[in-house]
């Protein structure tokens, strides 16, 4: 495990649970709005070793409920399944934050997961303009289908691009609802900490941008940020 960050306690990264978060190093995509740019380089030196994290979690049994693996992109870690297995052995729930770039890797992890937050960035055809990687949208939407078929509790998240219109976001939300997504969160884009310093601030406030979405299309619909 290459770990680029560790948060010992959070109330917001796994809904309804007290959790620790392991930030995995490395990501195959280069999204301009990325706010964790320090985690993109897979060769960066880890800041903490997995045995140290494991020892911390042993001491927190009965005090924490869950461990979330985030990133970067955690599914790229070859030791992720083993780490998740150890976490489950300690009695914790296991959560995953992923953008779904590697559906075949994700498929091998689903039996170890209790909850997933999947970042769906756009309609499949619009992904390359965001990630810089051809066919990246196909991988993300395949990952969506795999998680849904598994029955693992899922929240889909979208960061609204700064140049999007209400029609753009509504079209994406409608496509997700049609695919059967029941929990959906739309997040504001904070360009102050973006990987691409040329990225302009959003033109339209998030609430106005999301006004065209019918909340009744989802069991749970959230706006995060401003």
TrEMBL record:
The keyword Iron-sulfur applies. Keywords: 4Fe-4S, Iron, Iron-sulfur, Lyase, Metal-binding, Pyruvate, S-adenosyl-L-methionine. InterPro entries: Aldolase_TIM, NrdG2, Organic_radical-activating, rSAM, rSAM_sf. Residues 13-226 form the Radical SAM core domain. The keyword Iron applies. Gene3D superfamilies: Aldolase class I. CDD domains: Radical_SAM. This is Pyruvate formate lyase activating enzyme. It comes from Thiocapsa rosea.
């Amino acid at each position: 495990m290459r770990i680029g960050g560790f948060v010992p306690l959070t109330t917001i990264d796994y809904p309804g649970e007290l959790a620790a978060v392991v930030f995995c190093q490395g990501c195959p995509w280069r999204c301009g709005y990325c706010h964790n740019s320090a985690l993109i380089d897979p060769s960066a030196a880890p800041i903490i070793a997995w045995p140290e994290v494991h020892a911390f979690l042993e001491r927190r049994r009965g005090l924490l409920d869950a461990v979330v693996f985030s990133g970067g992109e955690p599914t790229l870690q070859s030791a992720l399944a083993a780490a998740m297995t150890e976490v489950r052995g300690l009695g914790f729930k296991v959560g995953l934050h992923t953008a779904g770039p590697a559906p075949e890797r994700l498929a091998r992890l689903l039996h170890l997961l209790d909850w997933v937050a999947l970042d769906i960035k756009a309609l499949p055809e619009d992904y390359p303009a965001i990630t810089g990687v051809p066919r990246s949208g196909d991988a993300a939407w395949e990952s969506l289908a795999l998680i849904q078929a598994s029955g693992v509790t899922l929240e889909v998240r979208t960061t609204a691009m700064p140049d999007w219109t209400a029609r753009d976001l509504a079209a994406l939300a409608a496509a997700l609802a049609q695919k059967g997504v029941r929990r959906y969160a739309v997040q504001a884009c904070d360009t102050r900490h973006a990987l691409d310093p040329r990225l302009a601030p959003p033109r339209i406030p998030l609430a106005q941008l999301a006004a065209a979405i019918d909340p009744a299309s989802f069991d749970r619909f959230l706006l995060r940020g401003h």
